[in-house]
Amino acid sequence: MTTASKIGLFQFKGCNFITNIHNPEYLAEICHFEIKESDVITVTYPKSGTTWMQQILCLLYSNGDPALVQSKLTVERVPWMEVPIDNSKDILLPHLRVTHLPYRLIPKTLKKGNGKVIYVARNPKDVAVSLYHFQNYVTFLETPSSFQEFLEDFIDGRLIYCSWFDHIIDWYSHKDEFDFLFLTYEDMKKDLKGSIQKICDFLGKKLDEDKLDLMVEECSFKAMRKNPKANYEHVEGKHPKGSFLRKGIVGDWKNLFTVAQSEMFDRIYQERMKDFPFKFIWDSK
Ligand code: PPS
Prior knowledge:
The chain is of the alpha/beta class. The protein has a single domain (13-272), classed as Rossmann fold (3-Layer(aba) Sandwich). Helix content is 40%, strand content 11%. It has 13 helices and seven strands. The strands form two sheets. Strands 5-4-6-7 form a four-stranded parallel β-sheet, with helices on both faces. Strands 1-2-3 form a three-stranded antiparallel β-sheet, with no helix packed on it. The longest helix is centred in the C-terminal third of the chain and has 15 residues, at 259-273. The chain is globular. It starts with a strand and ends in a 12-residue tail after the last helix. The structure holds 3'-phosphate-adenosine-5'-phosphate sulfate. The site of 3'-phosphate-adenosine-5'-phosphate sulfate has 20 residues, from helix 2, helix 6 and helix 12.
C-alpha cells in the first residue's frame, strides 16, 4: 500500500482506493474470489450509473417487488466486490455484485468467463461533474480547491480508481472474455424501459408488462431520490448540504465546464479514444 497524491486515498497495485472504505488485505484477496456461473457483476467507473443499476438488478431479482429497495440500503442489497462484507448479516442477493475495479484486479475466475458482466459507461464530462460535486459533498475525500484543478486530476487519473480512459479502454478490450452487456447511462435515460428489457434478455429474465412498468417507476430518478435507502440519507460522512442522488441528468457538464475546459477535454478525449471501437451518443454532439 502506498499513499496516493490526494487526501483520503491510498494506492494498491497502481489503483487509487478510499482509505475509509477499502483495505489492502481485502483487495489482495479479490483475485482469488470464486465467481459462479449465476453471478452478475456490474462494472462501472465511479459516477456512471452504478446505483441505478443496483436498483434495477435488485428489483429484477426480487421479481419487481419494491419492498427490498425501500427497506435496505442500496449497498446492502447489491454489495461492492471490493468492500469487505459483514458476514454476520444475511447477504440478500448473493449473486449480485458491483465493482469499480480495473480489469487487472478482478477475480481470476471472472476472467475465465464465469458469471455475467454488465458494464455501464457515461459521458466522462458528466462523470467528472458528478464526481466533483460528490467530493464536495462527502467528508472522506479531498474537497477540490477549484474545478480546473479537479478536472486536471480527473484527466490525469489522480482521483478515485484513477483514469476514466484506462478503465473503459481496458475493460472494453477484454469484453470478449465475458458474457458481456455494454450499456450507457445516456441510453438508460433515453429509454429506461427498453434498457431494462435489454437487461432482462441478457439475464434470461421475463417480466410481465405490469412488473416492467412498476420497475420503470421505481428506477426513475424521482422515485430513487425520494427513497432514503437509495439516496443514502441516513449515512454518515457527508456535509449537510447536497444529496447523493444529485441531478440525474445528461449534459450537466455544460453548467460547469468553461469553453476552454471543454475544448481541452475534447482534444484529450479524441486522442485517447481514437481507436475505441464503440460510437457513443455523446461522440456525435
Ligand atoms: S457511485 O458513487 O460511483 O456509486 O455513483 P453512481 O451511482 O455510479 O453514479 C451516481 C450518478 O448517477 C445518478 N443516478 C441516476 N441518474 C438518473 N436516473 C437514476 N435513476 C439515477 N440513479 C442515480 C446520480 O444522480 C449521480 O449523477 P449526478 O449527475 O451527480 O446526479
